[in-house]
Structures are given as C-alpha cells and as structure tokens.
C-alpha cells in the first residue's frame, strides 16, 4: 500500500515536472550553478592544500660540517638529532657525495671543473639534511643544532624559511574561498527562492486537480508529497547534469593545475573519481534537504489541505 | 444517516448561512434540499463533507460525529460520501476511465482493482462505451454521469448532489435524475440540493426547504413552494 502510494506520488511529481518543463529547467539550472560553484570551491581547496603540502615538503635544515670533521663525529651528531621528538628524518650526505653532486650540477662550467681538478683535497664537507615533523618544530631543531658542544663541528646551517610562501598561498586560497562562499550563498539563496516559486506555481497549476483529490478522499500526505518529490527530482536532475558537465570542466582546468605543480603530478579528475560517492552523494543529500525544506514551506503557505 | 442538530454557520462579516438548522435524514431516503440562492443549501453540503466546521451545533453522518473532525480523518470521511457538483469537476486531460480511476488511485487501490471496478461503475452510468473519451468529447449529461460514477466508486452510503442538473438541458436533466433515482433504489441515501422547481415537483419525494438559513419546510412528499 505504502509503496503503491509512493509510486503514484512519484508519477504525479514526474508529470508535474514535465508539464511545467520551462520552470523545472530554470530550477534545475540554478541548482546546477550552485553545485558547480560548490565543486569549484572544492577544487580551490584541494589545490591550495596540495600546494601547501608540496611547499612544506621542500622545507628542511641543511647542516654543513667543517671539512676536517670525521664521519664518526657526524654520525654522532646525526644520532643525537634523531633522538629529538621533533625530527622526522635526517639524510646524511658525505663529502664525496656532495662533491659528486657539485660536479654534476656544474658539469657544463669548464672553469669550475678545472679548479676542482687542481685541488688536491675534497673542499666539500659532510652534510645532514633534517626534516621536521611540523613547520613549528624547526625553531627547536635549530636550537638543538646551536648546542655549544657542536660549535666546533658545524661550519654553517641553512634554513630556507618558506613560511612566507605558505602564508601567501593561504592568503590567496582564503580570498578565493571567501569569494566562492559568497557566490555559493547567492546561488543557494536563489535556489531556495526558485524552488519555493516552482512549488507555488505547481500548486496553482494543479489547483483543479488538488480540489478533486480532496473531494475523492486523498490523504494530506498523498496531496502534498508530489510537490515535495518534484523539488527532489529537480535536485537529482541538477546533480546528474553537474556530474556530466563538471568532468569536462576538470579536463580544461587540469593543464593549469599541472603547470602550478611543477615537477609533481596532481590529477584533479582522479581526485574527484576517488571521492565521487562522497562528494556528489553529499551534494545530493544537501540539495535534497534544502529542496524538501523550501518546498515544505511553500506547501504550508499555499496548499490548503 | 444524517443528523444536523442546531447547526449554525456564519461567514464574516455578517452573513448567517445557517441558523440553528435541524435536519434528520434516514438511510435509503431521497431528499431534495431546496431554496433560493444564499439560503444555505450549499453550506449544508460543505458541512457534510467537512469542508467547513459548524460554529455551533452537531453534525453526524453515518453515525460519525464530524462536528470537530480532525484534518487527518477528513480523507476517510470523503471516501464514505459521494459528491457531485454542478460544474462536474472533471480533469480535462484525463479520459473518462482515468477520471474515475483517479478516485481509486489516490485512495491507494491496486491496479487490478481499478481495472475491475471502474468499468463496472461506468456501466452503471451507461458510459461503458466511452471509456477512452476526454471530457471535451462528452455532452453535459455524460460529464455529470462520469462525475456520478466517480462519486460511486467507493460504494458510498450517501450521495450528495449539489445542483447536479444546473448546467444541463431538460433531456440530460431527466437522465441524471433517473440515474440518481436508480442509485437510490440500490440503497444509497441521496441528498440533492437544487432550485429546479420542475424536478422537485415531479419527484414526489421528501423536500426540505431553506430560507435565509432557516429550515422553513420539511415534507415527506413535498413540493417546491418558494
């Protein structure tokens, strides 16, 4: 009985959706714009988060030892620093490794190559490249390196503070996010109003039918439900169209994103594929909830059953 | 079957549609309620289908006190009362079959029940050959017969007919009255609101006369006297 009634309500809702097709399409279009702006905001979020992770990944402290310091001493320092809870990893580069790397880097520079040949000893020193678990851990690590017991061993330490870059990325992302929230807010408001209006018009165009329904003993639920279902159908259609439209849009955006992440690969389509159910499922649930609330208010106001 | 006890109904600002009306109709009766426009005839129909609540008094139909009926119970009440109106109230985009089936659909009847019952009821009103016609393809009398078929679909104990012949010519009027009499013969109580003098006089059935919201006449075999 319940399923039969539900089936008929869905059928009546589909009929109404079709009979007022232009109004239905306008509703779908506005919901679609809302969903597209939500998804673009998501793209901005994903890109900025990934950019920050990429920058964070490049931050480290390089400790250059004096050339005369023995490997065993460097190993001692390494072991000491590894004991710090803030340290994530330490890479040891011997003086030979550094010399090879230097030669490779300046392979095309004849003067440097000749100078190196003339030197009888390796001018490079051993290095420790230290990564912290978190950005805020670096001051602690730098303090540990400055320990007086290491003063005679360490020639130089190099810490590129990328905090400025990170805060700039955060700043840009925040600005874009704020603008996106504003756009989403506007579209969401328009969606609510247009759904309200769609249901209102549907009620007026079905006035005759509603009167007859009441006359022949249709329950309140049976009279009201098609209008709520019609708004839900508009939401489902809008999500479906968003999916169809959004993937080509991602393909257009992908080259720009790739150029942003030089040397790293970031696949936007892959990201949306991975979280497809989560992203579009949540959007469907959210838009359904908004539509149910909006149409219920319209029904309460205009449908006297 | 129907009891209106001291029923009053006012419409703002000053219209008194019914003034302490007392009407008692027994099962199986055929009653005409007559009176001039504004006498309160249609208000009685609206009270009986719970479209309006009375301001005071008691309304009982089929043993059910509907004076303060809850909204959620109105649909059950209306499935037990058949109603037809002067303007037929048919859905123009539905066929004869679909118009009658609609009453069963909204009540949650199965498809097979609809396929069985609708042709039966349409044969009672002699429209078995016009199932696929649309309302615009029918005469006024045929439209009213579709409306009567729809009203009968739930096998009601009471059929309320509010000016059922108001839009019909003499020939179609006679057909509809004959049909209402036939339905009454099957045991259904028929309450007809009308101001058609000729019909009321030819019926030789009970007549309740209203004037300005008051019951001014109630004759077992009555005539239209106003």
Put the structure in a nutshell:
Chain A is of the alpha+beta class and 305 residues long. Chain A is 73% helix and 8% strand.
What does this structure look like?
The complex is a heterodimer of chains A (305) and B (226). Chain A is built from 11 helices and 4 strands, in the order ααβαβααβαβααααα. By secondary structure, chain A is α+β, with helices and mostly antiparallel strands. Chain A has 2 domains: 192 residues, no CATH class; 99 residues, Alpha-Beta Plaits. Chain A has a 4-stranded antiparallel β-sheet. In chain A, α1 crosses α9. The two termini of chain A are 22 Å apart. The relative contact order of chain A is 0.16. The model of chain A has no long low-confidence stretch (mean pLDDT 83). By secondary structure, chain B is of the alpha/beta class. Chain B has 2 domains: 127 residues, 3-Layer(aba) Sandwich (Rossmann fold), CATH 3.40.50; 68 residues, no CATH class. In chain B, 45% of the residues are buried. The chains are: A alpha+beta (305), B alpha/beta (226). At the A-B interface, α1 and α8 of A face α2 and α3 of B.
Give descriptors for this structure.
heterodimer; A: 305 residues; alpha+beta; Alpha-Beta Plaits; 2 domains; 4-stranded antiparallel β-sheet; 8% strand; elongated; B: 226 residues; alpha/beta; Rossmann fold; 6-stranded mixed β-sheet; 34% helix; globular
* Spatial arrangement of strands, main beta sheet of chain A: 2-3-1-4
Q: For the CA atoms, what is the radius of gyration of chain B?
A: 17 Å
H/E topology pattern of chain B: EEEHEEHEHHHEHEHEE
- Terminal CA distance of chain B reads 27 Å
Portion in helices of chain A? over 70%
Task: Explain the layout of strands and helices.
The complex is a heterodimer of chains A (305) and B (226).
Chain A: H1 2-19, H2 21-58, E1 61-65, H3 71-82, E2 87-93, H4 95-105, H5 110-118, E3 127-132, H6 138-145, E4 154-159, H7 163-205, H8 207-215, H9 220-260, H10 268-274, H11 276-302
Helix pairs in contact in A: 1-9, 2-7, 2-9, 7-9, 7-11, 9-11
Chain B: E1 2-11, E2 15-25, E3 30-34, H1 41-48, E4 56-61, E5 64-65, H2 71-78, E6 81-85, H3 96-105, H4 111-124, H5 140-152, E7 158-162, H6 170-185, E8 189-194, H7 197-203, E9 206-211, E10 214-219
Parallel strand pairs in B: 3-8, 3-9, 6-7, 7-8
Antiparallel strand pairs in B: 1-2, 1-4, 4-5, 9-10
Helix pairs in contact in B: 3-4, 3-5, 4-5, 5-6
């Amino acid at each position: 009985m319940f399923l039969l009634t539900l089936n008929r309500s869905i059928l009546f809702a589909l009929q109404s959706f079709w009979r007022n097709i232009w109004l239905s399409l306008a509703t779908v279009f506005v919901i679609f714009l809302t969903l597209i702006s939500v998804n673009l905001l998501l793209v901005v979020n994903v890109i900025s988060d990934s950019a920050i992770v990429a920058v964070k990944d490049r931050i480290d402290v390089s400790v250059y030892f004096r050339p005369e310091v023995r490997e065993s001493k460097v190993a001692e320092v390494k072991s000491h620093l590894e004991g710090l809870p803030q340290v994530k990893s330490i890479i040891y580069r011997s003086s030979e490794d550094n010399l090879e790397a230097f030669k490779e880097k300046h392979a095309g520079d004849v003067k440097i190559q000749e100078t190196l040949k003339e030197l009888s000893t390796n001018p490079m020193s051993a290095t420790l490249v230290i990564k912290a678990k978190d950005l805020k851990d670096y001051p602690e690590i730098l303090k540990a390196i400055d320990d007086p017991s290491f003063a005679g061993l360490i020639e130089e330490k190099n810490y590129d503070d990328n905090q400025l870059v990170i805060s700039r990325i955060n700043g840009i992302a925040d600005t874009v996010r704020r603008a996106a929230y504003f756009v989403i807010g506007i579209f969401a408001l328009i969606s609510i109003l247009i759904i309200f209006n769609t249901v209102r018009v549907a009620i007026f165009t079905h006035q005759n039918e509603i009167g007859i329904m009441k006359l022949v003993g249709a329950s309140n639920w049976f009279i009201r439900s098609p209008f709520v279902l019609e708004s839900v159908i508009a939401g489902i259609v809008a999500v479906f169209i968003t999916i169809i439209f959004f993937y080509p849009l991602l393909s257009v955006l992908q080259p720009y994103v790739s150029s942003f992440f030089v040397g790293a690969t970031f696949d936007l389509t892959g990201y949306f594929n991975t979280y497809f159910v989560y992203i579009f499922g949540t959007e469907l649930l959210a838009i359904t909830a908004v539509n149910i609330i909006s149409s219920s208010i319209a029904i309460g106001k205009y449908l006297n059953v | 079957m129907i009891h209106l006890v001291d029923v009053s109904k006012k419409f703002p600002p000053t219209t008194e549609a019914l003034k302490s009306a007392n009407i008692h109709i027994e099962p199986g009766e055929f009653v005409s309620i007559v009176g001039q426009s504004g006498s309160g005839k249609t208000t009685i129909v609206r009270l009986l289908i719970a479209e309006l609540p009375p301001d005071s008094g008691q309304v009982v139909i089929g043993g059910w006190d509907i004076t303060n009926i809850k909204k959620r119970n109105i649909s059950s009440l209306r499935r037990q009362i058949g109603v037809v109106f002067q303007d037929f109230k048919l859905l123009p985009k539905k066929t004869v079959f679909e118009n009658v089936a609609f009453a069963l659909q909204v009540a949650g009847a199965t498809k097979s029940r609809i396929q069985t019952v609708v042709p039966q009821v349409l044969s009672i009103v002699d429209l078995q050959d016009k199932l696929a016609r649309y309302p615009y393809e029918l005469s006024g009398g045929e439209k009213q017969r579709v409306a009567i078929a729809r009203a009968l679909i739930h096998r009601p104990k009471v059929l309320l007919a509010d000016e059922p012949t108001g839009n019909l010519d003499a020939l179609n009027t006679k057909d509809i009255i004959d049909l209402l009499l036939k339905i009454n013969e099957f045991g259904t109580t028929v309450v007809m609101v009308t101001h058609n003098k000729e019909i009321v006089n030819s019926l030789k059935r009970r007549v309740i006369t209203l004037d300005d919201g008051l019951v001014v006449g109630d004759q077992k075999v009555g005539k239209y006297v106003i």
